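just leaving the lab so this will be short. what follows is a protein written twice so to speak, once as letters and once as structure tokens for the fold. can you read through it and tell me how you think this chain folds. thanks a lot i owe you, the record is right below.

___
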Amino acid sequence: MSGADDVPNEKLIRKKTEQAEQKRPSPAASPRAASPYGERLPPGQHVAQGWPVLDLGVKPAVPEAKWMLEVDGLVETPRTFDWAAFKALPQSERTTDFHCVTTWSTFDNRWSGVLFKDLCAAVGVKPQARFVVFASYDGYTTNLPLDACMDDDVLLVHAWNGAPLSRDHGGPVRMIVPKRYAWKSAKWLRGITFLAADAPGFWEVRGYSNTALPWAEDRFSP
């Protein structure tokens, strides 16, 4: 029998899809004019206490010993990384803010992991690659232009604030793309594919923005 963490939350998925279809924001945050954070806080956002947990109702339990990351598509050397090979890549640390489309933001998160551009160097991304699709152990996918992933703050993260990334937050490894809404930062990462053409992911085909820019309140597709 499946447990509660193994069953997609269809009610949540329907509700969020309906919001996108109606171009309706999530519950309103405090007015921007009242924010003490100035331009640091994107419009329509509020600062959360702690780090809220959001998912599709499935929380894969993937121990480090069994975790694998498959990197394929338009690369010179397709590779499957186990935990040891992943940790052997150059390790970096960044401190950034993080913004969810449901209107919460968290500040000063200290991430540890592998810069996306260092992973690209390890596999040799081909010149014709223009887009990236991220796949998760729960069946989730999301997409981004390759150039959006090459910023110096985009990481494959395995630790948050000095502790291993928890299962609730996408451990053992998730993406962090700070300049995009959080649904672009795939949790429970298991695959990365480099493509010449765009391939919208789970929320993108359900009415959410393909670009997901927080400071433009770019939440839903036109």
